[in-house]
Write a structure and sequence with these properties.
CATH class of the largest domain: Alpha Beta
Family: Belongs to the NnrD/CARKD family. Belongs to the NnrE/AIBP family.
Strand order of the largest sheet: 1-9-18-17-16-15-14-13-10-11-12
CATH superfamily of the largest domain: Ribokinase
Keywords: ATP-binding, Isomerase, Lyase, Metal-binding, Multifunctional enzyme, NAD, NADP, Nucleotide-binding, Potassium
Subunit structure: Homotetramer.
Cofactor: K(+); Mg(2+)
Low-confidence stretches: 499-505
Bound molecules: ligand NPW, adenosine-5'-diphosphate, potassium ion
Number of helices: 18
Number of strands: 18
Helix content: 40-55%
Catalytic activity: (6R)-NADHX = (6S)-NADHX; (6S)-NADHX + ADP = AMP + phosphate + NADH + H(+); (6R)-NADPHX = (6S)-NADPHX; (6S)-NADPHX + ADP = AMP + phosphate + NADPH + H(+)
Length: 505
């Protein structure tokens, strides 16, 4: 299975069942899961008194295995149950029976003197909000100074959404099995996991995953590189629609993003009143006047000369005019990246937009713009489903931005980004992202891959700059990230070329 695949709770159960159908005993899977938890505890912490807190299901079963193996390694172990003994069944009961030490019920003294807490209370089987005695136990765990190692997922976090159901454990580290689940990548779940270890427990076989964690190995093979004999017209053309004279910076940031990521030509389409402002700033980016939707449509005819992608939205203003200009782009043969005001201009009449979007067009809303356009209230943990549903509804690629940006395609495929530092939460950074995506799309990447690559690049540039980042820095960081990304790909190519040479000799 692709190591970047992200599985839902249902898919995890299906993968587990497929392994069992293939001849692996379910108790063997639990034994390996508990063993891996004990191994991580031993690797990460010195020997110390450990409390293993076990819940009523198989997550608790993993806890009993870890407790047995840590006790065998002569760790001082205390097992604490947060359920009635009678509720344990199947493999969890088997593992509880195999544990020979004392098991107590959770009370005020349960955590006295411990230096590590293993949270095996709830995993993928959490079905309702945490309350009552269980909540009291979780609160006591979070209030205790010892670090927490969570089994599979911090108890209280919903696997498929990453939302807190009532109350949740704050872990220092989380050991999960076979593949990550959405909650390991989506906030607030991601922050509650601490460091995530994905460990093998013997589940093999292919799985038709629909969700992936963003990484160059998903799209690196299609990442554009200039060819020896190439010229600028082969590297695509990005046009960027500017706002009025007092709102020109956002469009320039987008244009610079597109140029830096390798678009052969970038042209600013500016209202006449704003053209002198752009003229005093732009050098390698070309400038043309375009005041009306008809004039924008005229410029879109350049799509016949080279692969043209047009960005509209960054500081273009929320207006009927922006709506008409957007429709002019979508009714031409130019590709489109729609951001900010181009999206909000269709709030209240989204069908006028959805009716003309094409499958490869890209929308890049932040959660506010998303809520306005798709008329959904964003709630914690609802992001993945919301982005996938929106993509299907709009019939194009949707990039729902934030610390855990989702890239969704109408066929249900989705990528969750995980490399963006919080320094990116600064004015204009989203404008640069629109430019990066458009620049990659103009160079021939499909909308979904261009969006995933652009979002990853944006995060990598953010990391390169770090604290103090302003949006203007992002395009300048592109060359060093490009160098890092393309070097391993170049080495692969060189290896291939020398092998071919050796074969020919
Ligand atoms: N998939 C795999 O490959 C492998 C999975 N493995 C492990 O199995 C784990 C999943 O196990 P699981 O399905 O038994 O669910 P789990 O999370 O233990 O909890 C279910 C129990 O909690 C209860 N309950 C729920 N919500 C509650 C609440 N708010 N407050 C109170 N009670 C609540 C619920 O009760 P019910 O809803 O039925 O009333 C039920 O009794 C998975 O995370 C991993 O650790 C590994 O062993 C091996 C390979
Ligand atoms: N806390 C955060 N951590 C990481 N990235 C973030 C965070 N907040 C915002 N971002 C990223 O910063 C960019 C902000 O874009 P946007 O909200 O459109 O701002 P602007 O319109 O000012 O450009 C998006 O790419 C988003 O994913
Ligand atoms: K847990």
């Amino acid at each position: 299975m692709n190591p970047l695949a992200v599985l839902s709770a249902k898919e995890m159960r299906a993968a587990e069942q497929a392994a069992i159908n293939g001849g692996v005993a379910s108790a063997a899977l639990m034994e390996t899961a508990g063993k891996q938890v004990a191994e991580v505890a031993k690797q990460e912490w010195s020997k110390r008194p450990v409390a293993v807190i076990c819940g009523p299901g198989n997550n608790g079963g993993d806890g009993f295995v870890a407790a047995r193996l840590l006790a065998e390694a002569e760790w001082p172990v205390k097992v604490v149950r947060v359920c009635d003994r009678e509720t344990l069944k199947g493999d969890a009961k088997l593992m509880a029976d195999l544990y020979e030490g004392e098991v107590s019920e959770f009370d005020a003294n349960a955590l006295a003197g411990v230096g590590l807490i293993i949270d095996a209370i709830f995993g993928t089987g959490l079905t309702r909000p945490i309350e009552g005695d269980v909540k009291t136990a979780l609160e006591a765990i979070n209030a205790h100074p010892a670090p927490v190692l969570s089994v599979d997922i911090p108890s209280g976090v919903s696997t498929d959404e990453g939302a807190v159901l009532g109350f949740a454990i704050q872990a220092a580290r989380t050991v999960t099995f076979h593949a990550k689940q959405p909650a390991h990548l989506l906030f607030p779940g991601r922050a509650l996991c601490g460091v995530v270890d994905v460990v093998d427990i013997g589940i093999t076989g292919e799985f038709d995953a629909k969700i992936f964690e963003n990484h160059p190995s998903l799209w690196g093979a299609r990442f554009p590189r200039p060819s020896w004999m190439g010229h600028k017209y082969e590297r695509g053309h990005v046009m960027c629609v500017s706002g009025g004279p007092m709102s020109t910076g956002a469009a320039r940031l987008a244009a610079e993003g597109a140029l830096r990521i390798g678009a052969g030509l970038v042209t600013m389409l500016s209202p006449s009143a704003a053209a002198p402002v752009h003229a005093s700033h732009l050098t390698s980016i070309m400038l043309r006047e375009a005041n009306t939707a008809d004039e924008i449509a005229g410029h879109m005819q350049d799509a016949e000369k080279s692969n043209l992608v047009t960005i509209i939205g960054p500081a273009t203003g929320v207006s009927e005019q922006t709506r008409d200009k957007t429709l002019a782009i979508l009714n031409s043969s130019a590709g489109a990246v729609l951001d900010a005001d181009a999206l909000t201009s269709f709030a209240g009449q989204p069908d006028a937009l959805f009716d003309v979007l094409r499958p490869d067009d890209v929308l890049t809303p932040h959660t506010g713009e998303f809520s306005r356009l798709f008329s959904v209230e964003m709630k914690d943990g609802g992001k993945l489903d919301a982005a996938r549903a929106a993509s299907k509804k709009a019939g194009c690629i949707v990039v729902l931005k934030g610390p855990d940006t989702i890239i969704a395609a109408p066929d249900g495929l989705a990528i969750i980004n995980s490399n963006a530092p919080p320094d990116l939460a600064t004015a204009g950074s989203g404008d640069v992202l629109a430019g990066l995506i458009a620049g990659l799309k103009a160079q021939g990447m499909g909308g979904f891959e261009a969006a995933a690559a652009g979002v990853w690049f944006h995060g990598a540039c953010g990391q390169t700059i770090g604290p103090g980042l302003i949006a203007e820095d992002l395009p300048k960081a592109v060359p060093s990230v490009l160098r890092q990304l393309l070097k391993p790909l170049q080495e692969q190519d060189d290896g291939l070329t020398s092998q071919q040479g050796a074969q020919q000799q």
